[in-house]
Specification:
This protein folds into two domains: about 130 residues, no CATH class; about 250 residues, Transposase Inhibitor Protein From Tn5, Chain A, domain 1, CATH 3.90.350. It is globular and about 75 Å long. About 40% of the residues lie in helices and about 20% in strands. Helix 1 packs antiparallel against helix 6. Strands 1, 2, 3, 4, 5, 6, 7, 8, 9 and 10 form a ten-stranded mixed sheet that branches. The protein has 16 helices and ten strands. The chain is α+β, with helices and mostly antiparallel strands.
C-alpha cells in the first residue's frame, strides 16, 4: 500500500508540471520537462539532501540509472540553474490542488477523522512565517523593512496546519503568500493574506468543518467576521491590552468558573477556568458578540502561576466543554513548535535561500519544502514500511541520515524497496 500512496501523492505534484504553460520557445532548451524540474527540486527537500542531485547524476554516469529516476520518476535530472529557471514562472496558486488533494488522500485512509476533535471538525492553526531574508537578493514580490538603517528584503507566508492536542503529527495545508503585487502602493501584510486565504479555501475546506486557531493579531472584528462568513469557527488568543473594551466588560461582569486539580510530577497544580458568553468584541455600531475564556494554572504549594491566557471564540462555553476549548486554544502553539520550528531548525532549512529567481522561484521552493513536510506526515500515518523504518530510528535527524545514506550508496527500483532498505539495510549476500 505504501508504494501506491507514495505514487498517488507524487502524481499530484507531477500534475502541476504537466498543466503549467511552457513559455520556452519551440525547439529551444526543451531537453528537460517542467515536471521533472519540480520533482527534482522536491527531492532535495523530501530527502533533506542538498547535494542529492549531484550524487544522483554521478550515479547515472556510473550505473546508467539513478534513484531520482526510479523513485521520483524523473526522466532526466536538470542542472540546478535549469531547475530554478524552469520553475521561476510557475504561479504558486497552482499548488492549491496538490495540498488539498493530498488531504483527500489522507481522508481516504482515515487520517482526517483522527484529527476531528470539535463538533466533528478539525483545528487549523495559522501563523505568519518568514522563509527568506537578504540585504542584497530581492525581487518585485519581496517585502521589506528597515533594520538598523539597512533595508532587509524578505519573503513571508501565512502558514496553516491541522493540529490535535497531545499529537505531535501536524498536517500542513496550502499557505498564502504575503507578497507585494505589481501596482500595489501598500505593502502586503499577514492580516490581508489571511483574508485571501479564507476566501480561497473557505468552500474548499468546508468538509473539514474547521475551527481556526490564531494569536492575538486575529482576534478582531474584521477577522472574526471573515472567518464566520466562510462557515468556519475560531478560537483566537485575546490579550487585555489590545482589547480594552472587551477587557472592561469582562472586569465588570460575573464570570462562570471551574477549578480542576491535577498532578504534574510531584507538583500539585490547579487550573482555574473562567468564561463569559455574549461579549461585544469592540465598542462600535458594527460589533460582534463573542465568548471569552480564560485559563490560569497555578502551583498549589507555591502559589506561582505557571500559565495564563485568554481566548475569544464563537463556540458557546459551558462547564462541560471549557477544559477542552482551552486545550484546543493552547494547541495553536503546535504550529510554532511542531511546524515552524521543525521546518527552520530540523533539516528542512526553510529560511535558507535555495534560489531566488526573478518571479516565483523563491515561493515555489518554499511550497515544495512545505509539501515535502506534508508528504512525510501522511506517509508516517499510513505507510507501514515508513512507520516501521521511523520506529526503528527514533531521532528525526538520524532517520534522515539513513535516508541520505540509502540514496547515496544504494540503487533502488521504487519507493517501497527504498524504505525497506532504510529499515533493514542491504539484503544479505
Amino acid at each position: 500500500m505504501g508504494q501506491e500512496i507514495f505514487e498517488e501523492l507524487l502524481g499530484r505534484l507531477e500534475g502541476i508540471g504537466r498543466e503549467v504553460p511552457d513559455g520556452r520557445r519551440w525547439g529551444y532548451d526543451q531537453k528537460y520537462e517542467i515536471k521533472d524540474a519540480l520533482k527534482s527540486a522536491f527531492g532535495v527537500f523530501f530527502f533533506q539532501h542538498p547535494s542529492m542531485l549531484q550524487f544522483q547524476r554521478a550515479m547515472q554516469e556510473k550505473r546508467k540509472r539513478n534513484n531520482v529516476t526510479t523513485i521520483l520518476k524523473v526522466a532526466e535530472i536538470p542542472s540546478d540553474t535549469q531547475i530554478k529557471t524552469l520553475i521561476d514562472n510557475i504561479e504558486p496558486a497552482g499548488f492549491d490542488t496538490v495540498f488539498s488533494g493530498n488531504l483527500g488522500i489522507a481522508d481516504k485512509h482515515g487520517i482526517i477523522d483522527k484529527y476531528r476533535v470539535l463538533d466533528d471538525g478539525v483545528l487549523i492553526a495559522l501563523d505568519g512565517v518568514w522563509y527568506h531574508s537578504s540585504e542584497n537578493i530581492h525581487c518585485k514580490h519581496c517585502l521589506h523593512k528597515e533594520i538598523d538603517g539597512k533595508v532587509m528584503y524578505y519573503h513571508s507566508i501565512v502558514a496553516g496546519t491541522i493540529v490535535k492536542p497531545g499529537d505531535g503529527a501536524v498536517l500542513p495545508v496550502m499557505p498564502e503568500m504575503i507578497t507585494n503585487e505589481d501596482g500595489s502602493e501598500k505593502q502586503d501584510c499577514e492580516i490581508n493574506a489571511t483574508k485571501r486565504w479564507l476566501k480561497k479555501h473557505g468552500k474548499e475546506y468546508k468538509w473539514l468543518k474547521a475551527t481556526l486557531l490564531g494569536d492575538d493579531l486575529f482576534s478582531n472584528y474584521p477577522m472574526c467576521m471573515a472567518v464566520l462568513e466562510q462557515g468556519m469557527s475560531f478560537i483566537f488568543t485575546c490579550k487585555p491590552k489590545s482589547h480594552p473594551w472587551l477587557t472592561e466588560t469582562i472586569t465588570n461582569s460575573y464570570l462562570d468558573e471551574l477549578s480542576v486539580k491535577n498532578w504534574k510530577g510531584k507538583n500539585h497544580h490547579v487550573g482555574t477556568y473562567k468564561w463569559l458568553n455574549g461579549v461585544e468584541i469592540r465598542d462600535d455600531k458594527k460589533t460582534l458578540l463573542v465568548n471569552y475564556l480564560y485559563l490560569e494554572i497555578k502551583n498549589k504549594e507555591t502559589g506561582k502561576v505557571g500559565y495564563k491566557n485568554g481566548w475569544v471564540t464563537n463556540k458557546t462555553i459551558t462547564k462541560e466543554n471549557c477544559v477542552s476549548l482551552a486545550a484546543f486554544g493552547r494547541a495553536r502553539w503546535k504550529i510554532e513548535n511542531e511546524h515552524n520550528n521543525v521546518l527552520k531548525n530540523h533539516g528542512y532549512n526553510l529560511e535558507h535561500n535555495f534560489g531566488h529567481g526573478k518571479n516565483h522561484a523563491s515561493e515555489i521552493f518554499c511550497l515544495l519544502n512545505l509539501l515535502s513536510f506534508q508528504f512525510h506526515t501522511i506517509l508516517g500515518l499510513v505507510d507501514e514500511g515508513y512507520q516501521s523504518a521511523r520506529a526503528s530510528i527514533s531521532r528525526r535527524d538520524e532517520f534522515f541520515n539513513h535516508l541520505r545514506a540509502a540514496l547515496r550508496y544504494g540503487l533502488h527500483d521504487n519507493w517501497q524497496q527504498f524504505i525497506i532498505f532504510v529499515r533493514h539495510g542491504p539484503p544479505d549476500g
